[in-house]
Design brief:
This protein is α+β, with helices and mostly antiparallel strands. 36% of the residues lie in helices and 31% in strands.
């Protein structure tokens, strides 16, 4: 399993609207991607949103980053301060209840 973490810097006061648009527009897209396991959107503190996506293979995780970048550019770029910091890694431990 591979995890992709994206850290977005967002414009002040825009996190709630951005999260609503992600739920309605991006989540259905990523959920239908091959190898999809899970997706989380976290409040990372003042003007920061963090997403965590889990996929079966590294190629699928990298593809999700490209899909996210395209979606952000076309749908919510006005709420962000540029594109996110992105990290992808092999999931060494995943404990889910």
């Amino acid at each position: 399993m591979f995890t992709s973490i994206r850290k977005y810097k967002v414009k002040r006061g825009s996190a709630e609207e951005l999260a609503r648009r992600v739920q309605e527009g991006f989540v259905p897209l990523i959920r239908d991607m091959p190898g999809f396991q899970s997706y989380y959107l976290l409040d990372g503190g003042p003007d920061v949103l963090i997403t965590i996506s889990r996929f079966e293979t590294p190629d699928e995780a990298f593809a999700s980053n490209q899909k996210a970048a395209d979606w952000v550019r076309n749908n919510v770029l006005e709420f962000t301060k540029g594109l996110p910091e992105v990290m992808v890694g092999n999931t060494l431990i995943a404990e889910v209840r």
